[in-house]
Amino acid sequence: MSTCPVRIRHHTAGASQPKAIRMASPPVLENEDRTEVLDEPLFSTLDIILLSALLLTALWWLMRRNKHEEYTPITKSYSIQPTLLPAVNPSENSFIKKLKTSGRSLVVFYGSQTGTGEEFASRLAKEGIRYRMKGMVADPEECEMEELVHLKTIPNSLAVFCLATYGEGDPTDNAMEFVDWLKSGNADLNGLNYAVFGLGNKTYEHYNEVAIYVDHRLEQLGATRVFELGLGDDDANIEDDFITWKDKFWPVVCDFFGIEGASEDVSIRQYKLTEHVDLPADRIYTGEIARLHSFTNQRAPFDAKNPYLAPVKVNRELHGPTSSRSCMHIEFDIEGSKMRYETGDHLAVYPVNNSELVNKIGEKCGVDLDTVITLTNTDEESTKKHPFPCPTSYRTALTHYLDITSNPRTHILKELAEYCSDPNDKEKLKLMTSTTAEGKAAYQQWVVQENRNIVHILEDIPSLKPALDHLCELLPRLQCRYYSISSSPKLHPTTIHITAVVIEYKTPTGRINKGVTTSWLKEKHPTDPPSYVPIFVRKSQFRLPTRTSIPIIMVGPGTGIAPFRAFIQERDLARKEGKEVGDTVLYFGCRRANEDFLYKDELEEYVKNGTLVLHTAFSREQSQKVYVTHLLENNKDELWRIIGEQKGHIYVCGDAKNMARDVHNILLKVVMEKGKMSELDAADYIKKMDSQKRYSSDVWS
Ligand SMILES: Cc1cc2nc3c(=O)[nH]c(=O)nc-3n(C[C@H](O)[C@H](O)[C@H](O)COP(=O)(O)OP(=O)(O)OC[C@H]3O[C@@H](n4cnc5c(N)ncnc54)[C@H](O)[C@@H]3O)c2cc1C
Ligand SMILES: NC(=O)c1ccc[n+]([C@@H]2O[C@H](COP(=O)([O-])OP(=O)(O)OC[C@H]3O[C@@H](n4cnc5c(N)ncnc54)[C@H](OP(=O)(O)O)[C@@H]3O)[C@@H](O)[C@H]2O)c1
Ligand SMILES: Cc1cc2nc3c(=O)[nH]c(=O)nc-3n(C[C@H](O)[C@H](O)[C@H](O)COP(=O)(O)O)c2cc1C
Fold first, then answer.
1. Residues near ligand 2 (Cβ within 6 A)
2. Rounded to an integer, what distance in angstroms lies between the CA atom of residue 565 and that of residue 651?
3. Residue 446 is a catalytic residue
4. pLDDT value of position 11
5. What distance in Å separates the CA atoms of residue 311 and residue 154, rounded to the nearest whole number?
6. For range 362-381, the mean pLDDT
7. CA proximity to 312, closest of 538, 523, 492, 493
8. CA distance linking residue 297 with residue 667, whole number of Å
9. What are the tens digits of pLDDT across the range 346-357?
10. 3-state SS string over 178-223?
């Protein structure tokens, strides 16, 4: 039972604006290194059986791989999964052999979840040819990375690493093993020439940690840094960071290897087009992620490669009639799918692009979108044979496989410029791709600030009429989107619920931009026959304490409430089953009580029945903003009682940029003030809470 008086608190005035003085707390999505503070026996019988099974599987795997005898995996994974999946047997992947047989000396490895790192790597490898360094892109997961010690056997060779950071300074899934190898091994990398470019985001505490680590570790192992570490910040302009770095990188590389002058910058197509005339329909991809016919012939297990087509069971508006926005409560039916999920997991959704935008591209390019094509890599050594599943129609490629709504990067504009029939249009595009201050400013203003996607660019550059197959080669892959699951499987084993705010905004050019996934989901309603959505569950480490008696504080303004709805459902069930349940405290914030108070009735019912203590902040109901952070500041005693005295857990979900950072700062203040600690000790205390899984975040920006 709750030991605290049950109440709803509405706070409306008197708080001052919080100041962000530190970096955001890391998004604690998954971390297998963590242990929870418990005073119950360490292992139950079930745990021992499971651990033994895991140990045996791990031993079998290690023996099978027979790769590193002393290798101890420190594997972690987190919430974003790559959608391009390796399809190669690693034992066949000697990158040294490939480099030698194809006369190359440059290899660019990438650590990427959502494709940016991979794209940067491709661009570098492609540019190598200009500097007489024929390049190859490589996925470390598909390579024997121990072979780095032999790269020096190729004259004038260079390894470049484009590496993104996730979670708590973790590598991407495909770079995990490589980073573990660097950490645990002591290979002699003397003679290896290298450079590193990192991809990160400054709103996360562990900014670019992977790249920083790899750059340092390679040097420690004897390798030669040819050019300084580059750091890209996705919160600012990662494209600018990359081209600025790249522009300085090449002259230094040329100097280092004694290469004189660059050849002309000519566009080289990566993929060859084949148009099919009479291909039988059953050989054509229609949006499947990997296996042909996987949408008509659904087979478990379902994952990133093989999503489940889930019928939409419920799609209900959560905002009140006076709200200018929309937030959806969606329930997906997973009955009979064998899909399982746990409270705190994420649901991945594969979206579909708006058909009007797709048609506009077809019109502007003057192409019949129903033409069936295959794009085949001209580089026979590449493991990536096609940029997306082929054969398929242009329509399917633009609808299911390609990202047509984000701001195109400069290399795309550079190649498109060649298709302008008006020299002024060509110059305009070319300027935006130049690395001069003027060029960068023009790109920043016209593409980024004015928020133009490829359709807008085709509309606003009248003489631009690119070859559609070339455009399809250049556009990045459409990525799945993640949603914090807002239901508990204990209550809802056959449905998965999400809480998604619809993205819609006006751009400076007066256009209305709509979020790809949320605007598509908005139209998905329970129908007969059902509307289907391709989904899969991504495991997380955002978990309730295993003992229900441990008190918890949840901070989740806006859609940040999503996982907490599931947490509360589970605690309510436990209470009704007669279990001892510690305090369950929620800090929820929204604009106005009658507009966007998500799940108001449900929450008030939990308050009434004694499951929940609810604190609400309605930010726009008075002249001064009131946020959940202000309430936390006013409730330092409650906070300290739960986290300091009762060793409870605190959870944060929602905005990574401001809110999570502010909550971290308040927590620090509370620990200093109520725990009577210095700032340093309080920071240590919070770090310890973090590693004990007593402070977890599920945040995004
Ligand atoms: C781990 C994780 C959990 C998440 N959980 C949830 C959740 O529970 N609920 C939820 O609603 N979302 C959640 N998200 C966010 C979600 O994944 C999507 O990013 C979101 O729904 C938008 O997707 P979309 O395809 O509709 O929009 P997109 O087409 O991806 O467009 C979004 C982009 O539009 C731009 N944009 C958005 N608003 C504006 C604006 N006002 N002005 C200018 N540009 C703008 C931004 O660049 C933004 O990245 C989560 C994200 C992560 C990583
Ligand atoms: N990348 C994406 O596509 C995407 C998609 C969905 C959400 N998001 C982000 O995720 C966050 C949550 O979105 P949402 O629409 O669910 O919530 P929301 O309605 O924008 O915000 C919920 C409440 O939080 C308040 N708030 C603003 N800044 C805060 C801070 N620093 N600390 C505490 N509270 C604060 C808001 O107040 P005011 O609005 O009155 O200031 C509002 O009352 C937003 O930051 C949004 O930008 C991003
Ligand atoms: C859920 C999530 C967690 C992230 N964590 C970090 C982080 O801890 N440190 C960091 O520097 N960047 C972090 N980032 C930013 C990414 O590294 C950055 O967006 C990068 O460009 C992604 O590259 P990719 O597209 O190749 O995966 C995170 C991004 C997301 C969506």
1. 501, 503, 557-559, 589-591, 596, 619-620, 625, 627-629, 654-655, 658-659, 662
2. 13
3. no
4. 44
5. 54
6. 95
7. 523
8. 50
9. 999 999 999 999
10. HHHHHHHCCCCCCCCEEEEEEEECCCCCCCCHHHHHHHHHHHHCCC
